[in-house]
Automatic annotation (TrEMBL):
Keywords: Membrane, Transmembrane, Transmembrane helix. The keyword Transmembrane helix applies. Gene3D superfamilies: MFS general substrate transporter like domains (1.20.1250.20). This is Transporter YycB. Pfam families: MFS_1. GO terms for molecular function: transmembrane transporter activity. It comes from the Bacteria. InterPro entries: MFS, MFS_Cyanate_Porter, MFS_trans_sf. It comes from Methylobacterium frigidaeris. The gene is yycB. The chain crosses the membrane at residues 20-38, 58-80, 92-110, 116-138, 150-171, 183-202, 223-244, 256-277, 289-307, 313-337, 349-371, 377-399.
Amino acid sequence: MRSIEREPGAGIARPEKAEAGFHPVLIGLGLMLVAFNLRPALSSIGPLLPGIRAETGLSGALAGALVTVPVLCLGVFGRLAPVLVRRLGPDASVLAALVVLALGLVLRGLGGVPLLFLGSVVAAAAIGIVGVILPGIVKRDFPDQAGLMTGLYTALLCLGAAAGAGFTVPARRALDLGWEGALMLWAAPALVAAACWLPFVHARPLPSASAARPSGRLWRDPLAWQVTGFMGLQSSLAYIVFGWLPAALVDRGLDIVAAGLVASVSALAQGVLALVVPTLAARRPDQRPWVVLVISLPLIGFTGLLVGPLAFAWGFALLLGLGLGGCFGLALTLIVLRAGDPRAAAELSAMAQGVGYCGAALGPFLVGIVHDLSGGWGLPAALYAALCLGAASFGLLAARDRTVRI
């Protein structure tokens, strides 16, 4: 199906929650708290991965699977989000997913490799569902500030990733925990987020019939597939970093604490362009210059960390983090901008994240295999560069001034 030119303001619904008595600031704070909890479950594994492999004997392939399976679950279970929204409404669906997220985080800390994988799957399923729902909520409640709100919650999501990467090992040592207890700690903020989101639960659908069953036309729209391709490939870039950066730095000579701090600085830097890029990109109809910028930075940063001089590790980490934050913020912004109304945003979000994350799961797994086969980080760096080029290709197509048909 051929995409059409965007008509400003077409199909925009006014915020419903404001009419229900919720101040926009409170809604925004709730969204930020939810967003913070969507990455520690994923980024906290990487710093502990060397210790987990030493204690459990995980091979490189299985360690790659430990990183890959949760990413795959983001896509597989993200497809359940529209079903839950039709039955419960978006707000109740977010609340239920937060509770499931906390359960998964507890499960993976109960001990043993099977529960580690099971808990990771449960937690990732919940994250995938929430991630699909949030763009529709932003389009519904903040139609005139979509870029700003997308940037804010993306920045908090990146902050959560930084917290998972940087604080897990120090917390383990400070509290004298095993890797199981260190992973379980992240259930606490998820429960706090659930408690704070509870007042917003009204079990109602998105406006403009967005809770209706998908029409199927979106799956025949080239623009929708371009947005999906960019979402999937940029996600693969990020999850390769989450899963393998600390281990790669340890292999190259850094101790585990220093490697975790480098990963944390990189994740923390994501918040800068995650906030700036959506806010500025949404002001113009064409986002192609932003695609070039945000893809170039991780290409330089991650390949530098894998094969470049470690004396420049902090600089490479900064470039990497800025680029990944910008990539993710731009991907979410494209979902909102390429959709003409909240219903389209909800359907495009489900497609882009559901399909995109399934494809993204291959990245960390392939890096693990290539690293095992080569015994070094040169070939993984080349693979990462190829994925960057693929992401740029899809992004340049998705960033044109068009909207999808549904």
